[in-house]
Write a sequence for this structure.
């Protein structure tokens, strides 16, 4: 992903550096945000990624999205 500043110059680049298959889903497990102007970067790595964790579809209602059940928040 490329992000541009108000002068329409490239400011930041967000890349998916590593993709792994997790439970049959291609999943980004390492991403980097590079600040082009400041020559700085931040790397994020995801560990213990999982899918189908037992959540009921009802948890994605407006009510629960505003106040999620404590058991799913860590």
């Amino acid at each position: 992903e490329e992000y541009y500043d108000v002068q329409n110059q490239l400011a930041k680049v967000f890349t998916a550096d590593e993709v792994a298959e997790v439970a049959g889903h291609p999943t980004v497990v390492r991403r980097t945000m590079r600040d082009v102007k400041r020559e700085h970067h931040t790397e994020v790595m995801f560990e213990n990624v999982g899918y189908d964790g037992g959540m009921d579809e009802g948890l994605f209602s407006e009510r629960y999205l505003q106040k999620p059940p404590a058991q799913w928040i860590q």
